[in-house]
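Let us practice reading a record.
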Amino acid sequence: MIQLQEIRKSFDGREVIKGVDTLFETGQTSLIIGQSGSGKTVLLKCVVGLLDPDSGDILYDGRSLAGMNKADRTFLRSEMGMLFQGSALFDSMSIQENVLFPLRMFSPMPDSDKIKRAQYCLDRVGLKGSYHLFPSEISGGMQKRAAIARAISLNPKYLFCDEPNSGLDPLTSIKIDELITDITQEYKMTTVINTHDMNSVITMGEKIVFIYEGDKAWEGGRDALFESENEKLNEFVFASKMMQRKSC
């Protein structure tokens, strides 16, 4: 569980995040949505620890980020998995070597067990038998699966995904959404996703946080999304659906 308490963040005197409070539950996929420039990416970076909030606090299963020393923060990062927008695989490494990378950096297990763990994670995301292939030799969807395998290699408590369906076709996007949802429930992770993909919002949005000009303008589940009377949310949802229809 991750709890945000009055998170504020400014750049050059301009407040980008304006006192956001919310709760991301364990075993649940939570989505942060909002138009470009709304502050959702800055908010995710604060949650991940890439940016320090100017004020407020973030609690990870009750542990205060504001109260953590350097060693505590390092340990917290070892409990996090990150799926980057462009997969961010190392081109010079096979997909097995990519998954082994965090294991070799952070895990004390023997090398033979690290290899078994990497292969297990690749098998789990449907890449069995593809261990030796390089990122340039596989499709965008397979690259995203390999990136998910790497993100879960250390069995994280918290999984963060930045636009996981960026650049993927609709069918592959659905499969990636299903995989993230299944893994979240299987490993009982707290998963937070930054997205503008309305299909993901509709299918995955157990908890949705809508950010508008740095404020938490609305939150709720996917079932309540289309019943909302929030004007800005409705404008965003309608515009997003229209853009997706035009791109198909």
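A brief commentary: Residues 89-155 form one domain.
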